[in-house]
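ingest -> validate -> predict -> emit
validate: passed (alphabet ok, no gaps, 465 aa)
predict: started
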Amino acid sequence: MYKKPITVFEREINLGYITSLPLFFYLKEIMTPKNDLILNNFFFNNFGKFAIALIAFFSFIFLIGNNTDQEWLVIQYPWGQVNVIDSAGWYFKGGGSYWSYPRNWQVEYDGIHSFKVVFNDGGSAVMNAMVRFSSPLTTIGKRSFHQLFGGDQDAVESAVWAHLSDAMKSSGPVMSASEHQSARRGEFTSLVQDQLQKGLFEMKRISKTLQDQYDDKGKPITVYATEVVYDEMGTNQRIARPSPLTDFGIIITQFSITDVTYDDQTQRQFAQKKEAFLSAEGSKAQREKEVQERLMVEEKGRREKAESEAVALRRKAEEVINAQREKEVAELKAQREKVVAETNAAKELAVAEFYKRTAETQAAQYLECAKLDRMKAQEEAEAQIILASAREKSLRLGGAISEKERVLAEIERDKCIGVAEKLANIHVPQFIISGGNGGDSNEVNGSLMNMMLLRQLGVLPVDKK
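emit:
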């Protein structure tokens, strides 16, 4: 249970007692027969001063108090005024009554104050708990708290115990003892703490089949259990009875279940369940061993199959590599032969181009020579004609030409005319075929220019439209 701190009154009595002890021992030491007369005269002469000092000393002790930072006080003066002392330091008592409260409680409920919880499968357990809670924070809350409990700290602890007992008993039927022992202990603690802070939740009765629990006939055991009811939104629990601690201003800061002791029958049930679990685990281990052996055989077959496939794939890869290599060699050989053929063809084409250009050059030379010969003949014919005409004109003018000379002149004239006609009838090429290497436009343009000159000179006939 909670260990009460020393009260303010006891602390002040002890303070007065402790401060009085040095004076008492000092007087005891000096009270000797030798000094008795001197002391008596001293006290007799200063009695009034000692009385005033003594009254002031005890007045200071009993009229002035000191509050610690871990507590708060409620003081009621003789004239009826009530004050709440919520700060640390000195305060004026004025002969009033006062009560102290700790700001924070830490209470351990065990022994006769422990809680018995019954689960939905009939099993039960005795639980010890530790609760930390704080007193009200506001001055009005502290005043109301004092009015409710009147300085009795045991009553505060009993109020918390009563509501915690209701929360424990309300949370037990939600689960079975086996579920609480195996997996839902944290859920149980959380459910109790929520009800301790908010209030008791609304519960409904449901039918539930217990897992791993069977009757004598081997059928699953069905029990009646309770379930928390939520609101329409399904997020908050419905409160059946609000927490009285909220009305008291008590704030729960920590809750823990420190010890759980199940009843003998429940423990025997746990032992049977443990044996069944261990047996099931043994069977499971045996099954797993057999599965592992089967898996080893299957894996061995897969491994052998994989090795065979790997060998076949390796052979296939080698054949593919060889075929690819042969293909690349054939392609390289064909490429080399193609390059050789192209080189030879280019060489032959170059030779043919050379011969062609040589022939074209010779033809151009022959054409130029023929053109020059024709021009020479034409010039000579024209000269003969001009000479003959001149002679004829000279004779005609002279009037003395003889018949013989006339005849010779006519013969010379006719010869020149015949030569000119024969030169005019000389056949020269009408079409010149010129080829180029790779589209050489300069040679083609040169050939066309030559043809135009030949037409203008009359060597080539002009097309008649």
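The mean pLDDT is 76.
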